[in-house]
């Protein structure tokens, strides 16, 4: 039977009724909009007369796409991003048209924030996106479609509306952080400037008063700062190979906020932690998620206590849960499927690993993610090698070479048995690495006036302090038995490294001065070189220019 055709007259009626209701919804579209402001009184109210498609649209659209990526796109249709020249809403979300929009005027206000302008754009767009993904349209359109229940005047007094706006500010701030924008400190200043630019009064129907909105955003900012510190410290701990505390940090962040990015990072962290437990020779291939495959492959035999088998099983379970959640949130990120295939590979389920690596490769080709497509071929090559098909393995590793050179090369050498144990030849640098003259190893003996100090877990604390040109992140566990400190330079840092290099130096210059790195850490936007002996990580952009560096000091094993 045709499923589309209703089977009885009553359903036909129901169908008609629904369409009618939707039509009414469309005609009343303006009321179902969720705007950053909705104001039509005196001021500079002007409806849109033309779409904006210039560079401003391109800049905002890229921020928008980054937010969609971080949130994950799977649960609902991806809204369309539009920009126009109106002076009415600042920004809006239209659930009927599945559209998020921004006015050129508010773009200009964001642009006024100079180096923070992208973060300001992210704050506005993430606010609207939260209304969309959290289905805020339901309660509000319900209210606006029941006029006998409430006039537009009394909507203002409804705590529901204010609650939703607060939630949009809070979850929007989290989303911006997950996408890499730190917007929380901007909000109070941004709101003042935005209201002024639109000539708006302090009070607008349906929104908290400006003063309250500023106060709420300041409170939200404080909460966001804690989560932000935890999320960033998790990334830093992962970089230096402290996977277990990093996983604790990600788990805490997930309590506050769930996104594709956080789930995926947590899953990767669990798998990396699991690899730490592996016996030498137990898995003699290099995985595309490993930050430092060589030191694992070269490590000497140690005996695993039996209770560590339980730890391995638990980590596998965790990795699976996180990666399933990440997969449920996105279908455009090939990395999520790739990591899933690596999970099955490590769990000795080759058929599932094959399925997910094929899926990863298809997704990577479809959404143009060449490195991930190469990494999927590497997983397939490892599967072929394990299945005693060395010719297939060699062909697949070779095919992956141009897309993911380092890992493909390492696996080819392992397969063909012509691997020389890599000698990491970092050069001696006479001066210790310091940022603003701080001796990082001594930092815990000082009284630290931390700006953020959050309990991540029982007896585990995360701290953060902002300086003008760098940020300090602290991990402090078991009364300092285990701890780590990281100083991360900001783009305006004018100081120099121990060898006299500064921001803008090339990767070749750094390698001439420091020698070969202990490990190369590819992140989504940067390539980082870790010099463990010097306690410094250098991060380069796609042009191989130094954009920031991280000085660190850790005490992580007893
Ligand atoms: Zn809103």
Short structural description:
This protein is of the alpha+beta class and 558 residues long. It has helices at residues 9-27, 29-32, 55-71, 104-111, 117-133, 137-144, 152-155, 159-178, 187-197, 210-239, 243-256, 260-276, 293-298, 307-329, 334-346, 350-366, 370-386, 390-400, 405-416, 507-514; strands at residues 34-35, 80-84, 91-94, 99-103, 452-457, 460-466, 470-477, 482-489, 519-522, 527-531, 536-540, 546-555.
Question: Any descriptors?
Answer:
alpha+beta, binds zinc ion, 558 residues, 12 strands
Give an overview of the whole structure.
The chain is an alpha+beta fold. 49% of the residues lie in helices and 12% in strands. It has 20 helices and twelve strands. Strands 5-6-7-8-12-11-10-9 form an eight-stranded antiparallel β-sheet, sandwiched between helices. Strands 1-3-4-2 form a four-stranded mixed β-sheet. A hairpin with a 4-residue loop joins strand 9 (519-522) and strand 10 (527-531). Mean pLDDT is 82; it is low at 1-32 and 141-157. The structure holds zinc ion. Zinc ion is lined by residues 34, 36, 127, 131, 165, 168.
**Strand line-up in the sheet with most strands:** 5-6-7-8-12-11-10-9
Helix/strand/pairing class, anyone?
alpha+beta
Biggest pleated sheet: 8 strands, antiparallel
Low-confidence stretches are: 1-32, 141-157
Categorize the overall geometry. Answer: globular
Report how far the terminal alpha carbons are from each other: 69 Å
Q: Calculate Rg over CA atoms.
A: 26 Å
Helix percent reads 40-55%
